[in-house]
Amino acid sequence: MTRVGVDVGGTFTDLVALRPDGMLDIRKVASTPEDPSIGMLRALDALGKGFPIDVLVHGTTVATNALLERRGARVVLVTTAGFEDLLWLRRQDRPALYDLARDHPAPLLTRDDVIGARERMGPAGTVLALSDAEITRVTAAARDRQPEAVAIALLFAFRHPEHERRLAEGLREALPSIPVVASHEVLPVFREYERTSTTTAEAYLRPKVSSYIARTAAAARARGVQSLTIMTSSGGTLGPEQAARRAASLALSGPAGGVVGAGLVGAAVGARDLLTLDMGGTSADASLVTGGVALSEGAEVIAGVPLALPAILIETVSAGGGSIAAVDEGGALRVGPRSAGAEPGPACYGRGGTEPTVTDACLVLGWLDPDYVLADSVRLDRAAAERALSGLARALGNRAAHDICEVAAGIVEVATAVMARALKRVSVARGIDPRGMALLPFGGAGPLFGCALAESLGMSRVVIPPHPGVLSALGLAVAPERMAVIASLHRPLAELTTVALTDAFQPLLGAAAAALPNATLTRFVDCRFAGQGYEITVPALRDDPALLGAAFQAAHRARHGHTGGGERESVELVNLRVVAERAAPQASDLGRPAGVGISSGGRRMIVTRDGKRVRADVWPLGEQRAGGHPLNGPAILAGPDATGLIEPGWRGVVHPSGAVIVERL
């Protein structure tokens, strides 16, 4: 079976084909921002006519871009009367603690498009019954607003969904061509604000996402693709019909594939605890893998919109290769958040860009080879990069020509600091010491910054994959099919019995098995100490409350350094989860051609971060046999899809997988 992963990035679209023998085919083309599917289809065409594709796994940015650009559907929200302002009240927290002038991003709909339904459910059931007349009134009010989608989020619908069901039936009958999204179908858990926000986001995204998936599926079928699946934020895949009904779960589709690929490389080199950094053209994504498993959290905020759906922990910062460097109002050098993107791209791409970017800085420092052809015949223009940096040098007050390298080094330092903060937020801020972990940088520019980032975090080991520029696409190709089912069960563990837990899991097990037949089912519980405002998810290997309490306390100690001083009676079970998963075939080789020995590509002059001009060896990346001569820094690792840098004071060795293990001397 041939599986193909296609990752649509801000600058390039990457493809990895995993053949039945475990070997890889790699393609890279320029992205098409006006329609991401065009870039994906161009990548498929680059494989050649007649290339057999059994499964195509797609990492899409359509949901992410719709949230960032606010280009989703017009949504009408139906909620319990008296709670119409919930999305504006939020959690009453500040977006920036010390910035009194900064405000949260606006909700995805207008206040006039919120309808209060006269009904009320309480913890024990009906408080105010929903009448047929009220359903008729709400339906008419929704129709009059001419929505493109309708969201329903009523009070306590996670426990008592009867009113939501009746409203959904009435609205679907009255508006047969309009998606109607009910919160008990999307996220049947407590916390009204997050549940309402997630349901609204699902309605906001569903028309655009479902249309995109339908077009993509039709185009894939026309090219002979047997099966299409879509990557979700949780690191698993869904079929087109399921993905179209779970649009909000695609918000981190592409970045999640990168973390899956990083875990694959980590397993190959025996590194089960990883900090990962995916540095692409427009942004950098930091994540964490512990014990070989990507860390997941259920309350991500994308473009200011809380999405309380299962998702791999990803911290995104504006420090990609195309991030624009400029002087701020205070005269300091700043990198991002503006990006040159795919069009026109960095100045050195020769596509009309004139502003200096991180890629331009790396080229001026000699880290990139101007003679090397990138995707779609893009050749780097050093003179254009120097012109762009000269303008920035004048803005900074540095007029001498030799100061261009100083400006380039400054851009690199600022970008490194931005990415280091993201890595600290996913590790140090969660009580995890990164010094005992390995850093795995990937993406087109990530390996250039591996040593610098490791030094800033006190780490001593960097793992550079053999094909870091397409690792996200590889992660997509090997990602498992996955479906998660969740339900609230807010009870003290001391009040639960084994029989009660078993009975509570049964509906979820049935729903997960029906959604993904012949899958492996794994049970989890979300627990917390009484009074806490957050939960920790632990596996439910047995329906034993005492064992679950002990597992939660151990996880709490590992995450937060203490067990709260509570006994079993103080632990609450909040949610039940069942994950259905069908594993995909794995790559037998990470892309290293067999029988290729280590051969140097020569030497060239580069400028280090501290401004020193040194002569660096150039070695081929992904084309080396394990063992042999060590790769002493300074050295450039030149690959077909990415470039790496081994800085002075570091040494690399080639692993049998083709990855390069770089360690501090």
What portion of residues is helical?
A: 25-40%
Task: Quote the distance from N terminus to C terminus.
Answer: 44 Å
Gyration radius, in Å: 26 Å
Could you tell me the mean pLDDT?
A: 89
Structural class: alpha+beta
Total helical segments: 16
Q: What would you call the shape?
A: globular
Approximately what portion of the residues adopt beta-strand conformation? Answer: 25-35%
Biggest sheet: strand arrangement:
3-2-1-4-11-12
Unreliable spans? 593-598
Question: What kind of sheet is the major sheet?
Answer: 6 strands, mixed
Assembly of the depicted chains: single chain
Write down how many β-strands occur, each being a DSSP E stretch of 2 or more residues: 35
What does the model show?
With 665 residues, the chain is of the alpha+beta class. Among the domains are: 75-178, no CATH class; 481-582, Dna Ligase, domain 1 (2-Layer Sandwich), CATH 3.30.1490. Helices cover 30% and strands 27% of the residues. Strands 3-2-1-4-11-12 form a 6-stranded mixed sheet, sandwiched between helices. A hairpin with a 5-residue loop joins strand 11 and strand 12 (237-238). The protein starts with a strand and ends with a strand. The model is unreliable at 593-598 (pLDDT under 50).
Short note summarizing the structure:
With 665 residues, this protein is an alpha+beta fold. Helices cover 30% and strands 27% of the residues.
Q: What tags apply to this protein structure?
A:
665 residues; alpha+beta; Dna Ligase, domain 1; six-stranded mixed sheet; 27% strand; globular
